[in-house]
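Service request form, structural biology core

Requester: graduate student, group of Dr. S.
Request type: structure prediction, single chain
Budget code: on file
Notes: please return the result as structure tokens.

Sequence provided:
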Amino acid sequence: MADATNKAPGAGLRVKQTTRGLALALAITITGGCGAPAEQSQAESELPPRTPLRDLAAAAPGDTVFYRGLDWPRERYERQIVEERAALTGALDAAYPDGGPFFTDGFHNFDLALEMAGARSNSAGQPGAADIQRMQRLLVYTRAFHEQVYPRFFRYEPRRPFRIVYFRDRARFRAATRSPAYGFYRPANHILFSYSGSGHGTLWHELVHAFAAENSEDSLWPQWFSEGFASFYEMAFLDDRGQVSEGYANWRLPKLQRDIRARRLAPLGTALLRPYIAFRLQSASATPESSAAGELGYAGARMLFCYLWSAGLLEEFVQAVLYDLRPRVAPATAANYRTGLGPAILAKLSELTGRSTAELDQDLRRYALRLRKNQRLPVFDR
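Core staff response, request fulfilled:
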């Protein structure tokens, strides 16, 4: 398909939207490592300026659609979406010829690709009833989460579409990506990979990663923040009214409680000064004094965000890190995190909670030990 260069009315900018370029960016040739597809990333300098969500109504007057940082005539926007989704489908089918085929659907700023069941036995290449049902469920959970959660934590309109690729089952996902996870997000090509049956908790976890990446100049985040925030939404639901119901303990809690009782959990002031976390903590004989290496684990990182939710501080804390501390303080590299962003985050936690780091550490442990797996989190009096 031919390249198309478009000038948005009144935008004063030119952006090149090419289906060929999209296919190249989605050249999903499997490489080594954890099975991450290789791709060409879109440089930050090539993206349009950020547009605050609150300005969107004024940014797209009349019969136009605000997309990729520009006001598009609706007819041209609709053609562009068709072209982009066709390119996504073609790139996926070419990359995974032993499976599929894929079919696409979506809504504004979201392209969803789903691998059809039954490999290529459907000679017509059309999704069956079960495929359509799976896609509709994926659309419902993606749209609800974006509409209800994104505006609470994030300030900017996406500058490129989020792409979600679902393989037909876990075996296909693992064979295609070589990843042992339930899903993962690739910031370089803005794609979330998972599979049918992984659960909406996986989808929402990875969407948090995608949303945070879209609201940051880089992906240099302390891992405890990134994974703690994302895993908070592993346990949430859509209620009968289609509302996101959040604030629950989950399957990570029992291990965390065992680690606390066995004194394997590092002090908060130590753990949060490390940019990385790990699935395994110290040995059972470790003491707080000998845990200087210090890890929270995913469970401990998640529990901090649960505690902040109970205290009514979650949104304020996330936005402070995203839009104040992270841009203002030296980047969160392994070399300078302990003396830059790490202490700044600890100070912000103390400011918000009114507790010293040591007091917050003890509060967090008591809070975790009082909970039961899958229970609704308590709400603190303020």
